[in-house]
Amino acid sequence: MTDLELAMSRTWAEINLDELAHNIKTLRNMLNPHAKFCGVVKANAYGHGMIAAARKLQECGADYLAVAAVTEGAELRQNGITLPVLCLGQADTNLAPLMCEHNITQAVGDVPNAKALSDYAQSVGKKIRIHVKIDTGMSRTGFYWPENDESLKDSTAREILEVCRMPGLEAEGLFTHFAVADDDPDFTHLQLRKLLDARARLEALGQAFRLVHASASSGVLYYPEAHLDMARFGLSLYGYASPDVGNEGSTAGLHPVMTVKSRITAVRKIPAGETVSYGRLYTLKRDSVIAVMPVGYADGYPRVLTNQSYVKIHGVMCPTVGRVCMDMTMADVTDIPGVRAGDVATIYDYELMPQAAQKAGTIIDEIVCRVMPRIKRVYINDGKMTLKI
Ligand SMILES: *Cc1c(COP(=O)(O)O)cnc(C)c1O
Question: Would residue 240 show up in a list of annotated catalytic residues for this protein?
Answer without folding.
Answer: no
